[in-house]
Amino acid sequence: MPDGSRLPGIGDDREDDEEWIVLHVDADCFYASCERLREPDLEGEPVVVGMGYEAGETVGAVATASYEARAHGVESAQAISTALERLPRRADYDPDADSDSEHTREETGHYRPVDMDYYESIAEEVRTILHDCADVVREVSIDEAYLDVTDRTAWEVADGFARHVTDRIQREVGVTVSIGVAPTMSAAKIASDFDKPNGITVVRPGDVREFLDPLEVELLHGVGPVTARELRGMGLETAGDVAATDPEPLVEAFGERGRELYDRARGDDDRRVEPKGEPKSFSRESAFASPVDDPEPKRDQIRTLAEAVADRAQREDALYRTIGVKAVTPPYDVHTRENSLPGPVDEPDLVEELALELFEEFESEPVRKLGVRIANLEFAAGDQTSLEGWDSPMTETDASSSSPSSSPPSPSSPTLSSFTPSTVESTDSDVRTETESAPDEREEPDADTQTETQSREHVDGQTSLEDFP
């Protein structure tokens, strides 16, 4: 199988000491941004998305808060009851009954329950663009990823390349992201928080130490509140202090993490951007400018998408067992249908045939977006299954995830991680690559993990929900 991590003829000649160009892409208030896609009237309004929250209730925790909500003191991981004290619900506001209230209408906000299926459908679109813009993508969570773009751009124009990525995501998906560009993963991660929302911060080779030195220790990647207090107790207030100190006391206090903290504070980070696992599926999506009723344009689009994913499978020497379609109907109801085969195949004509068959029930409905997916991939060489005489029942699923009645997962339910791969709104985007997360894998080992998640979310993101399927 060809090596997908480098453009043809490039990777083998790279010098070990050549500076890499790493992008850290971090969505801005992702859940709230998704809610605004579904309800455009929420644009510019305070929006709070709650885990374990149901409309009208006071239980649950804040998963994310828009910048407007944060101005009222609402923060991620905060109890919904506390958030409501600081930002009452707009739905409960009565200008007549509340004329003597201490809160005005402008001091109220909109609360929505977490709708992971819907957010994942939007994240898929973002991920496909990321895979189209980089040769290597490491998906970290539903709203962030690292990209190695060393072979796609140059340092002289890296800021322009990053702006191309942000503009394309905003244009094709409708959400904003902020990007940090640096020669290391840890510096890029920090840089992406510097100019939110919709910002770009470039840290060029040779400037990493100058960029890191004045930062408070809390901003070092992998440092939580507990570690920060311990570092301050050692007289280390900034990254520059950590970089200038003797590393031995750090190792004594934090073990191997102490050495990592010392190295990262000095800008030393030799980790390469690597995917988390083998692809589980390929998919391709395309959106219409407005909902389409006529069946023929929709069938033509299914054919185009089916050809694209089948071609990708052949280029990657992949066989597949499952073929599926996705139809998004107004306002943003997501429906999926899939068919499982008796064994792995490489049959482009079959992909088109089954995709059209699965799509039949939506032919007469208005559709705003379509997708075709192949899954249960096998990359090992082997004989493919003969499908002669095959007649197997169809397996169907219906997400319809954007319905307001969708039940949010309970706080104890397993939840998201690994910015899984994706699809996109234009047919010139690359196919989706779905990755498998390594168990309990962390970008930065940190004994403060739980405290960190509850008190600070890389400055902008929503509360981390690990291992969402």
Automatic annotation (TrEMBL):
Cited InterPro entries: DNA/RNA_pol_sf, DNA_pol_Y-fam_lit_finger_sf, DNA_pol_Y-fam_little_finger, DNA_polymerase-Y, DNApol_IV, Rev_trsase/Diguanyl_cyclase, UmuC
Binding site for Mg(2+): 26, 143
Any one GO MF annotation of this record: DNA-directed DNA polymerase activity
Positions with biased composition (Basic and acidic residues): 100-112, 262-283
Organism domain of life: Archaea
Protein name: DNA polymerase IV
Listed Acidic residues bias regions: 437-449
Pfam families the UniProt entry points to: IMS, IMS_C
Organism: Natronoglomus mannanivorans
Residue ranges annotated for the UmuC domain, each copy included: 22-224
UniProt site positions, description: Substrate discrimination: 31
Subcellular location: Cytoplasm
Catalytic reactions of this protein: DNA(n) + a 2'-deoxyribonucleoside 5'-triphosphate = DNA(n+1) + diphosphate
Primary role: Poorly processive, error-prone DNA polymerase involved in untargeted mutagenesis. Copies undamaged DNA at stalled replication forks, which arise in vivo from mismatched or misaligned primer ends. These misaligned primers can be extended by PolIV. Exhibits no 3'-5' exonuclease (proofreading) activity. May be involved in translesional synthesis.
Family to which this protein belongs: Belongs to the DNA polymerase type-Y family.
